[in-house]
Amino acid sequence: MTSYSIPKTQWAVQLTGPDELRLNTSKPIHRPGPYQILGQVEAVGLCFSDLKLLKQFSKHARKERIGSGIDPAILREIPSYVPDETPTVPGHETTVRIVAVGDKVKGVRVGARYLVETDYRWLPTTNSNASFGYNFEGGLQQYVLMDQRVITSPEGEVFLLPASEKLSASAVALVEPWACVEEAYAVHERTTLKDGGKMLVVADGSIDNKLFTAFLGRFGSPARITIVARESFSLDSIPVVRANSVDELPAAGFDDVIYFGSNPATAETLFGKIAANGLILFVQGGNR
Fold first, then answer.
1. Are 189 and 256 spatial neighbours (Cβ–Cβ below 8 Å)?
2. How many domains does the chain divide into?
């Protein structure tokens, strides 16, 4: 097994209070206990979340003391657990190389490279949850100590992601912010009709029952259809309720709205009838 020469002290940037940063050139490097993991920091990124911690310090929701989810006796064994007014080390976008592990650590290999996953959501604080770089010291230091009992979820997932040697350390550390960007902009809307939902059908002209039945068979069947149309319309398998006008229908009352037509005023009115996470479909039939 690969062995590393580990110094007794290190350089670290510590946050000691609101807007109070200190460069500590002799911060002790703690040797790992039985369940602990020591990583050498290869790269760390900083983001606006770190600025909020800088300004709020102990008032930040993730700097609070853990309230449940782990035995307090375990937390007392971890020198990198730094809640409340205890100085912390920021930096949650971190790439590490494991240089030492305790004899009871499983699944984490000395010499291996990892991206640190940040949020320990099974360990709640009063207003949020425990997190690497907040109430546990982060990566703005040369070495960081983690505890497997903290970073392992109730489902058994260890919050260290193996990182390829083909990527630069900074590229690995950027996974976390890019994942936030992707999550913020990813589309999660339904792409089919809501089975068992409420559907509104509005038609300026006629509807082909056969084609519409095939459409429902392919994309999902609502529990009930409300229809506003000049011509009669019925289905064998789904109750159809007729309404005289769109205006008399409740706001945000329908999971799926289908408009057979192209009248701008009608289309604008229909947007107000869509429920949260609902869909609207325009069938123009060649019109504009």
1. no
2. 2
User: Is there a single domain that holds both residue 51 and residue 150?
Assistant: yes
And the tokens for 126? 């009063």
Burial pattern 15-51, b for ≥16 Cβ within 10 A else e, equals: beeeeeeeebeebebeebbebbbbbbbbbbbbeebbe
**Coil, helix or strand at residue 203:** strand
89: region left, alpha or beta (phi > 0 left; psi from -120 to 50 alpha)? beta
Give pLDDT, residue 128.
94
Kindly state the tokens that stand for 163. 């990182």
* 271 domain-assigned: yes
Residues 70 and 158 in one domain: yes
Q: Per the structure block, which two tokens stand in for 12? A: 């670290």
Same domain, 85 and 216: no
231 shares its domain with 264: yes
Task: Please tell me the distance from the alpha carbon of residue 196 to that of residue 221, in angstroms, as a whole number.
Answer: 6
Average pLDDT, 10 consecutive residues per value, the chain (288 residues) = 89 98 98 98 94 96 96 97 98 97 96 96 95 98 98 95 96 90 76 93 89 89 93 85 93 94 92 92 74
Tokens linked to 212: 């519409």
H/E stretch holding 268 reads helix 264-271
Judge if 16 and 62 occupy the same domain.
yes
For 71-89, the DSSP string reads -HHHHHT-TTB--TTS-B-
- Domain of 244 in residue numbering reads as 198-283
Q: Pick the last residue of a domain from 185, 210, 230.
A: 185
